[in-house]
Design a protein that fits this description.
- The protein is mainly beta.
- The chain has one helix and seven strands.
- The protein has a four-stranded antiparallel beta sheet, with no helix packed on it.
- The longest helix is centred in the middle third of the chain and has 5 residues.
- The protein starts with a strand and ends in a 16-residue tail after the last strand.
Length: 110
């Protein structure tokens, strides 16, 4: 069972929910516990982040929010989270982009 993204309106705010395997924290829930039902990423909801797109690799996830802000989490063995290190992250972390860059589409290669 792979991780499955779900972009859903939650309290009128588009929110990203995840379910599935989580051995690398790729669900963004702050732990490595697998989930059988979609679980909202509360940390992003609490920040008021409005998800507009998301992509999942086998062990990592990238979420695009309004304003071009991206959040990534999960395995980072090859630097795929774009955070300047190779440390694994089980919580959403904002990717490092120049203030002049605007992201319009995200893609996560398995």
């Amino acid at each position: 069972r792979l991780s499955t993204p779900l972009l859903t309106p939650f309290n009128s705010t588009p929110t990203f929910a995840r379910r599935g395997r989580n051995e690398n924290g790729q669900l963004g829930l702050g732990d490595t516990v697998d989930r059988g039902i979609p679980t909202v990423i509360k940390e992003l909801q609490d920040k008021g982040a409005k998800a507009i797109d998301g992509a999942c690799g086998k062990h990592h996830t990238v979420i695009l929010c309004e304003g071009g802000v991206t959040y990534a989490f999960g395995s980072n063995k090859h630097g795929q989270l774009g955070i300047g290190t190779i440390a694994r992250k089980a919580r959403p972390i904002s990717s490092h982009w120049s203030p002049y860059d605007r992201v319009g589409v995200v893609n996560a290669v398995p």
